[in-house]
Design a protein that fits this description.
This protein is of the alpha/beta class and about 210 residues long. The chain has a single domain, classed as P-loop containing nucleotide triphosphate hydrolases (Rossmann fold), CATH 3.40.50. The structure holds guanosine-5'-triphosphate and magnesium ion.
Length: about 210
């Protein structure tokens, strides 16, 4: 049985995975969750989230039910200490920036440092470049997002909470990673007898920072 099949057999469908949306104020965390949960985008003036709340969603991954409890946090600086408290028992984190805001992209490094400090080592992390529908206002190239994600060993997608582009995809990817990482996979031997001098290429890290 390959590792993915082994993970599927052992996966406990009663688990609920705490998943947290983080990132600067205004990058579109609430909009992304509303699009995912209700399939709609509410245009108009921006109303910053105050406090914290969650939405429960059940996703089907290869016939397995994966339960996500998705927490939408407030991005404003004054609420950061509250957000930190929620990192500890999170199994997945979606870190958003806005492709039209250089500061939101630059700040993702600080967010990743915080995540490293407060979250569990095996947390599943996705970096999302949101507002990808705003092509004419874009200041962060897709390649820059991909490069940063590679540097930190996290998964990357560009999304649009407005059009829905890659929104379901982002949460499905998280759910698949949670299935893959939820079981302790057997450690593969690094060497085979026939290639004593040739180490196997490093397996990709399962979860969290590589
Ligand atoms: N064009 C476009 N606008 C978006 C998108 N996502 C969010 N917005 C707009 O950006 C503004 C901020 O969105 P929010 O979802 O409230 O941002 P937030 O990250 O929840 O902000 P905080 O709650 O303060 O942390 C709103 O005016 C949204 O309508 C997107 O994908 N495309
Ligand atoms: Mg919000």
């Amino acid at each position: 049985m390959d590792q993915i099949s082994a993970a599927r057999v052992a996966y406990n469908q009663d688990l609920t995975h705490k998943t947290i949306l983080v990132g600067d104020s205004g990058v579109g965390k609430t909009s992304l969750l509303v699009q995912f949960d209700q399939g709609k985008f509410i245009p108009g003036s921006f109303s910053a989230t105050v406090g914290i709340g969650f939405t429960n969603k059940v996703l089907t991954v290869d016939e397995l039910k994966v339960r996500l409890q998705i927490w939408d946090t407030a991005g404003q600086e004054r609420f950061r200490s509250v957000t930190h408290a929620y990192y500890r028992d999170a199994q997945a984190l979606l870190l958003l920036y806005d492709i039209t805001s250089k500061s939101s992209f630059d700040n993702t490094r600080a967010w990743l440092t915080e995540i490293h400090e407060y979250a569990q080592d095996d947390v599943v992390i996705m970096l999302l470049g949101n507002k990808s529908d705003m092509a004419s206002a874009r200041v962060i190239r897709r390649e820059d997002g991909e490069k940063l994600a590679r540097e930190y060993g996290v998964i990357f997608l560009e999304t649009s909470a407005k059009t829905g582009l890659n929104v379901d995809e982002a949460f499905m990817t998280v759910a698949k990673e949670l299935v893959r990482c939820s079981v302790q996979l057997p450690v593969e031997p690094r060497f085979h007898l026939h290639d004593v001098m040739q180490p196997e290429t490093e397996p990709s890290s399962c979860c969290g920072f590589s």
